Amino acid sequence: MTSNDPFWKQHKQHETGNAADYDYLLHRVEKLTLVCRALWEIVAEQHECPKEKLVAKVAEIDLRDGHLDGELHAEPILCPKCGHKINARHDHCLYCGFNDLPKDVFTSV
Ligand SMILES: [Zn+2]
């Protein structure tokens, strides 16, 4: 696991292995939760969006992989060169080497 996150660098200096990974992941989850909450409050205030609409959208996105399990699984992407399905975590096609794969907005920022 590598990151430019100062929290990660600080923790890697003092801890190794699973404890450092756990602390880092916990920190990332807390940070993402904070950002999601801020975004939600901006949307709710500026667009007078009811909480029920957020809950329905979360369920809709959750079901895109066919399972209402509270988790978001990355959908495979199709290689534009050879057409094989590629796991979204890869930055190049494992079949033909094409390295300009289309990225989901959350993996491209
Ligand atoms: Zn390919």
Summarize the structure.
The chain has 109 residues and is mainly alpha-helical. It has helices at residues 6-14, 18-47, 51-62, 105-108, and strands at residues 77-78, 85-86. It is built from 4 helices and 2 strands.
What would your notes on this structure say?
The chain has 109 residues and is mostly helical. The protein folds into two domains: 1-70, no CATH class; 74-109, no CATH class. It contains four helices and two strands. The protein has helices spanning 6-14, 18-47, 51-62, 105-108; strands at 77-78, 85-86. The chain has a two-stranded antiparallel sheet with strand order 1-2. The relative contact order is 0.07. The mean pLDDT is 84. It binds zinc ion. The site of zinc ion (ZN) has 8 residues, from loops.
